[in-house]
Amino acid sequence: MARSKLEQVDGFRNEYRARLANSAQTGMSIGQWRDYQLFLAKLDGAADQQIFEVERLALEYERHKNDWQSCERKVKAFEALRDRHNQAELRKEGQQEQKLLDEFNSRLGRY
Prior knowledge:
- By secondary structure, the chain is mainly alpha-helical.
- 95% of the residues lie in helices and 0% in strands.
- α1 (2-26) packs antiparallel against α2 (30-110).
């Protein structure tokens, strides 16, 4: 959005400069020349403000992207911990089942 506004201001500024060049070739009064110059100065100011806004938004985007990536790393770390915990629990359950089976088989062997 900010970039499109900048492109729009730049396009209008270029169009207005072309009009100034055209009018200068066909002749214009000093008042008209001054008006063109004042308006071009306002367009330049608007373009500068829009450039600043584009840069500000780009920095803000990077900051938010870095924050998001940091959160993603934390989520992945917690997911890895959860997976390790679940695997340990499954191993523990498997060991308990094996122990019960071994005990059961050893009792069966006695009788």
